[in-house]
Amino acid sequence: MLSLVAGLGGWVVILLSIVLTIIYCIETANADEMVRKYGIGTGLIWIFALLALFVINVLGGIFGLIELLRCNNFQEVRRACYVLLLNALPWIILGVLYWVYMSD
After folding, report:
1. Residue 104 pLDDT level (bands cut at 50, 70, 90)
2. How far apart, in whole angstroms, are the C-alpha atoms of residue 102 and residue 104?
3. How confident is the prediction for the chain on average, in pLDDT?
4. What is the Cα–Cα distance from 80 to 83, expressed in whole angstroms?
5. How many domains does the chain have?
6. Strand, helix or coil at 26?
7. Tell me: the pLDDT tens digits for 38-77?
8. Nearest to 92 by CA among 61, 65, 47, 62
9. Residue 21 neighbours by CB under 8 Å, 6+ apart
10. Structural domain containing residue 41
């Protein structure tokens, strides 16, 4: 159960960082020269979001592996694998996006 909460929490961190980035960009776009002076803010939002996402998903993966070892039937194994995928999916998506972006 903790791994499911961590997996969903990771997705909440992603959505929250996207919303904060949009709000930050709207705020800096309305002021003169603010992006040039304070442009590092978007990067800091994403650095802290990725750090929090890493910690949450690693803990979720550890709890998911423990849950997988305790499974007694096939449905519990399938649920544990889905939860592990839920924790790994943000990093798979980021890896694919990085690979596509850097292949140019």
Report:
1. low
2. 6
3. 82
4. 5
5. 1
6. helix
7. 666 667 777 888 888 888 888 988 988 888 888 889 998 9
8. 61
9. 42, 45, 46
10. 2-102
